[in-house]
Amino acid sequence: MSINFRSSQRLLAGAGFAASAVIISQSAAFAHVTLATGEARTGTYYKAVFQVPHGCDGAATQTVRIQIPEGVIGVKPMPKAGWTLNITRGTYAKSYQSHGKAVTEGPKEIIWSGGALSDDNYDEFVFTSFLAGDFRPGQAISFPTVQQCAKGEVRWDQIASDGQNPHSLKSPAPTLRIVADASTVAQAQMDHSKMDHAQMGATTQSGSDTFTIGDLVVVSPWTRATPGGAKIAGGYLKITNNGKSADRLVGATSAGAHHVEIHEMSMTDGVMKMRPLTDGLIIKSGETVELKPGGFHMMFMDIKQQLKQGDTLKATLTFEKAGKLDLSFNVRAIGASGGAPAHRH
């Protein structure tokens, strides 16, 4: 089969157009203000990290305003050096329970102002919260956001209607997707755990990446693939305590590493520091603690062989009250940011 010169030109032109379309669509996809973690369970604590990738038509961002939707309570924003932080409070549409007390009002809008985020730079604006609303699995929670710049502003405040794809909107609000009802899942996991303990008298595994022991539920253990010769790997997961009293992660072991440590990473005087938690990590009653890059995490020290994507790394966690839990860490790609990365615009 032969292709003449004009046909070749048309094919190359078509290929070039398709490639350009992909590049343009990808550029547009990362142009929105988005949430770094786009999925969460209702009834859990949620750290909202808003990613601001650009200014307003080249002008520097000077103010970021984020509206807090109904049902997101206990909001505590993180201050930023060089920015003024203001919180607008208001009354909730209904009363919520927090630590046994009724909560009827709280932050409705957070404003970082007085900064100068160049169009050439990227930054993040962060707050912690609790998802207390009657959110259902699959529901999207929108956080209308406004960037005010030296010249003009950009409003990320369009909210998709039921059944509408938010990606079809020109200026979609950053959106959090609810992936499960925590109370329902927790009760099912507790019932399953009690039944298995009664039958087996041992720790149990529920699903491919959910592990239970007593009142504790550990989900999505993962680690990153390592380059050849590397001797250290991080370990990440989430622990939910469905019991009435606190427990403590006091240690861990793995046949694939010489020893395992529990670490905390934090910012001190502008310097990122890491320290081992010699007293372990407390998981309070009714709370979820996430071990993730940049925060609490596990360190597999002196690993015995290279970790490759698709492999698993077996380990045993030791809790002060619940005891020992055997589980497997899924090995993700080098540079992975999570066990199940959320989709970004």
From TrEMBL:
InterPro entries: LpqE-like (IPR007410), Lxx211020-like (IPR058248), PCuAC_sf (IPR036182), UCP037139 (IPR021174), YcnI-copper_dom (IPR012533), YcnI-like_sf (IPR038507). The keyword Thylakoid does not apply. It comes from the Bacteria. Keywords: Signal. Residues 1-31 form the signal peptide. The keyword Signal applies. Residues 32-178 form the YncI copper-binding domain. SUPFAM superfamilies: DR1885-like metal-binding protein. This is DUF1775 domain-containing protein. The lineage of its organism: Bacteria, Pseudomonadati, Pseudomonadota, Alphaproteobacteria, Hyphomicrobiales.
